[in-house]
Amino acid sequence: MHPVRRWLRPPLRPRGISRLITTARKCWCKVAETHGVDEATRAPFFAAADGLSSDYDHGRVLTALINRSEGQLTPAVATAVIASARRLGSDYERANVLVAVARHLRLSGELRRAFVDAANGIGSEYDRNRALAALEGSVQLD
To answer: Which residue among 13, 55, 72, 117 is buried most deeply as judged by most CB within 10 Å?
Structure first.
Protein backbone atom coordinates (compact mmCIF):
# COMPACT_ATOMS: atom_id res chain seq x y z
CA MET A 1 0.00 0.00 0.00
CA HIS A 2 1.26 3.49 -0.85
CA PRO A 3 2.45 5.29 2.35
CA VAL A 4 0.11 8.26 1.87
CA ARG A 5 -2.89 5.96 1.50
CA ARG A 6 -1.84 4.15 4.65
CA TRP A 7 -1.73 7.48 6.54
CA LEU A 8 -5.08 8.60 5.17
CA ARG A 9 -7.15 5.48 5.61
CA PRO A 10 -9.95 5.91 8.17
CA PRO A 11 -9.63 6.73 10.92
CA LEU A 12 -6.92 9.27 10.12
CA ARG A 13 -4.22 8.68 12.67
CA PRO A 14 -2.46 11.57 14.43
CA ARG A 15 0.89 10.16 13.32
CA GLY A 16 -0.29 10.28 9.69
CA ILE A 17 -1.40 13.90 10.05
CA SER A 18 1.93 14.80 11.60
CA ARG A 19 3.81 13.18 8.73
CA LEU A 20 1.73 15.01 6.13
CA ILE A 21 2.31 18.37 7.82
CA THR A 22 6.03 17.70 8.10
CA THR A 23 6.13 16.67 4.44
CA ALA A 24 4.34 19.88 3.38
CA ARG A 25 6.77 22.04 5.38
CA LYS A 26 9.78 20.20 4.00
CA CYS A 27 8.41 20.53 0.46
CA TRP A 28 7.89 24.30 0.69
CA CYS A 29 11.23 24.79 2.45
CA LYS A 30 12.92 22.89 -0.37
CA VAL A 31 11.17 25.07 -2.97
CA ALA A 32 12.28 28.20 -1.11
CA GLU A 33 15.87 26.99 -0.69
CA THR A 34 16.28 25.65 -4.22
CA HIS A 35 14.31 27.99 -6.44
CA GLY A 36 13.49 31.05 -4.39
CA VAL A 37 10.54 33.20 -5.35
CA ASP A 38 10.21 35.62 -8.24
CA GLU A 39 7.33 37.72 -9.50
CA ALA A 40 5.78 34.78 -11.37
CA THR A 41 5.81 32.44 -8.37
CA ARG A 42 5.23 34.98 -5.59
CA ALA A 43 1.43 34.69 -5.31
CA PRO A 44 1.18 30.87 -5.33
CA PHE A 45 4.17 30.48 -3.01
CA PHE A 46 2.77 32.79 -0.35
CA ALA A 47 -0.74 31.36 -0.72
CA ALA A 48 0.71 27.93 0.06
CA ALA A 49 2.90 29.23 2.90
CA ASP A 50 0.00 31.15 4.43
CA GLY A 51 -2.09 27.98 4.19
CA LEU A 52 0.18 26.05 6.55
CA SER A 53 -1.71 25.59 9.80
CA SER A 54 1.37 25.49 12.02
CA ASP A 55 3.12 28.76 12.86
CA TYR A 56 6.34 26.78 13.27
CA ASP A 57 6.09 25.34 9.76
CA HIS A 58 5.01 28.67 8.27
CA GLY A 59 7.94 30.42 9.94
CA ARG A 60 10.44 27.79 8.76
CA VAL A 61 9.29 28.22 5.15
CA LEU A 62 9.62 32.02 5.32
CA THR A 63 13.02 31.78 7.01
CA ALA A 64 14.24 29.31 4.36
CA LEU A 65 13.27 31.79 1.65
CA ILE A 66 14.98 34.70 3.41
CA ASN A 67 18.17 32.72 4.07
CA ARG A 68 18.35 31.57 0.45
CA SER A 69 17.96 35.10 -0.89
CA GLU A 70 21.19 36.42 0.68
CA GLY A 71 19.86 39.98 0.43
CA GLN A 72 18.55 39.58 -3.12
CA LEU A 73 14.80 39.70 -2.47
CA THR A 74 12.91 42.14 -4.65
CA PRO A 75 10.94 44.78 -2.74
CA ALA A 76 7.68 43.05 -3.76
CA VAL A 77 8.84 39.68 -2.39
CA ALA A 78 10.25 41.33 0.76
CA THR A 79 6.87 43.02 1.29
CA ALA A 80 5.12 39.66 0.81
CA VAL A 81 7.43 38.01 3.38
CA ILE A 82 6.60 40.69 5.95
CA ALA A 83 2.87 40.47 5.16
CA SER A 84 3.02 36.69 5.53
CA ALA A 85 4.88 37.04 8.84
CA ARG A 86 2.02 39.21 10.12
CA ARG A 87 -0.24 36.16 9.77
CA LEU A 88 1.83 34.23 12.31
CA GLY A 89 -0.03 34.02 15.60
CA SER A 90 3.06 32.97 17.54
CA ASP A 91 5.02 35.96 18.82
CA TYR A 92 8.19 33.89 18.87
CA GLU A 93 7.85 32.69 15.27
CA ARG A 94 6.91 36.15 13.98
CA ALA A 95 9.94 37.66 15.74
CA ASN A 96 12.23 34.96 14.29
CA VAL A 97 11.08 35.72 10.75
CA LEU A 98 11.40 39.47 11.26
CA VAL A 99 14.89 39.08 12.73
CA ALA A 100 15.89 37.06 9.64
CA VAL A 101 14.44 39.78 7.38
CA ALA A 102 16.38 42.47 9.23
CA ARG A 103 19.62 40.47 9.06
CA HIS A 104 19.40 40.02 5.29
CA LEU A 105 17.88 43.29 4.07
CA ARG A 106 18.20 47.01 4.61
CA LEU A 107 14.68 48.19 5.17
CA SER A 108 13.72 51.72 4.26
CA GLY A 109 10.56 53.55 3.32
CA GLU A 110 7.48 51.36 2.95
CA LEU A 111 9.36 48.16 3.79
CA ARG A 112 10.58 49.65 7.06
CA ARG A 113 7.05 50.80 7.95
CA ALA A 114 5.65 47.36 7.14
CA PHE A 115 8.36 45.75 9.29
CA VAL A 116 7.67 48.06 12.24
CA ASP A 117 3.91 47.46 11.93
CA ALA A 118 4.48 43.69 11.93
CA ALA A 119 6.82 43.96 14.92
CA ASN A 120 4.40 46.19 16.82
CA GLY A 121 1.75 43.48 16.42
CA ILE A 122 3.83 41.14 18.57
CA GLY A 123 2.26 40.85 22.00
CA SER A 124 5.34 39.66 23.86
CA GLU A 125 7.48 42.64 24.84
CA TYR A 126 10.63 40.50 24.69
CA ASP A 127 9.95 39.23 21.15
CA ARG A 128 8.79 42.65 19.94
CA ASN A 129 11.97 44.28 21.24
CA ARG A 130 14.08 41.49 19.72
CA ALA A 131 12.57 42.14 16.28
CA LEU A 132 12.88 45.92 16.55
CA ALA A 133 16.48 45.67 17.77
CA ALA A 134 17.38 43.57 14.73
CA LEU A 135 16.12 46.40 12.53
CA GLU A 136 19.03 48.58 13.63
CA GLY A 137 21.59 46.23 12.08
CA SER A 138 19.81 45.52 8.79
CA VAL A 139 21.90 45.28 5.57
CA GLN A 140 21.51 46.79 2.08
CA LEU A 141 18.45 45.90 -0.06
CA ASP A 142 19.41 45.67 -3.73
So the answer is: 55
Domain boundaries, the chain: 3-135
- Residue 123's contacts (CB-CB under 8 Å, 6 or more residues apart) are 91
For the stretch 18-51, pLDDT in tens is: 444 456 656 666 666 666 677 888 888 888 888 8
Contact residues for 76 (Cβ-Cβ < 8 A; gap 6+): 39, 42
Q: Collect all residues with Cβ–Cβ distance below 8 Å to 3 and sequence separation of at least 6.
A: none
* Helix intervals (H) in the chain: 3-8, 14-34, 42-50, 55-69, 75-86, 91-104, 109-120, 125-135
Q: What is the pTM for the complete model shown?
A: 0.76
Give the C-alpha separation, 91 to 102, whole Å: 16
